[in-house]
Design brief:
Length: 234
């Protein structure tokens, strides 16, 4: 896999999360187990590129379809600019109701996500086809690796690294023992992925994950990003 692609993947993740965050952080110890029934997925949060329908029950003239801009905002009649990215549809509905209530009587508004922007994860390392994997519905680490053509014989299945951008913008990392998931001794290791996760399948033993993640990013992006990393090796 080329350094250009690796750098692009990591730069995308860091850019979305923002720079300058500090503190040691890890992924939650109780990551969702995809084999548990039912799987409680987090409520969808609006992202740039999503197409939204804004519907008014009593003011049909204000109905419109808008696409969330790259800056996370939408432009609407009367209330103008509205910060949208990161909100759930219900939260945006409440926000618009409050904004329009100063101008309209009975601002009964509904937000519908008509189409979703392209959600993706990145699979790197000892896999057949390293690159982007489109995230369609719930997908686990093993499923993403399968979409990338599966692992090579040289893969170290017990030390797969997951890099994730948290809701507060921090970069989180954890080590997954997918060998245990494959053989059924701990299926919870095969956690559900989120958009822009990076799944790295190493070839050799990674003794210090903090050092490895730092080198993985900095050797491909030779600039100081001011990002700090924390690791859960359990």
């Amino acid at each position: 896999m080329s350094k250009w692609f690796v750098g692009l993947c990591v730069l995308s993740l860091v850019a979305l999360g923002g720079c300058g965050h500090t503190g040691k952080t890890t992924l939650p110890e109780s990551s969702p187990n995809p084999y548990a029934a039912p799987v409680n997925l987090p409520e969808y949060r609006i992202q740039s590129g999503d197409l939204l329908d804004i519907k008014f029950f009593y003011h049909a003239a204000l109905n419109e379809s808008v696409t969330v801009r790259p800056d996370g905002r939408i432009s609407l009649q009367i209330v103008k600019e509205v910060e949208t990215a990161g909100l759930t549809p219900a939260q945006l509905t409440d926000l618009l109701t409050k904004k329009y209530s100063t101008q309209l009587q009975n601002p009964d508004v509904t937000v519908i996500v008509r189409s979703f922007s392209s959600h993706r994860v990145y699979v790197d390392g000892e896999v057949t086809r390293a690159g982007e994997v489109t995230l369609v519905g719930p997908m686990t680490a093993l499923q993403a690796i399968s979409k990338a053509g599966g692992m090579k014989e040289s893969a170290r299945v017990s030390e797969v690294i997951l890099i994730r951008r948290a809701a507060d913008g921090k970069i989180l990392t954890t080590k997954l023992n997918l060998e245990e998931a494959i053989y059924g001794t701990d299926r919870g290791q095969d956690i559900l992925l989120m958009s822009y996760d990076i799944v790295f399948v190493p070839r050799s033993t990674i003794a210090n994950v903090n050092v490895w993640v730092d080198q993985y990013i900095r050797k491909n992006i030779p600039v100081s990003l001011g990002v700090y990393y924390g690791v859960n090796t359990n």
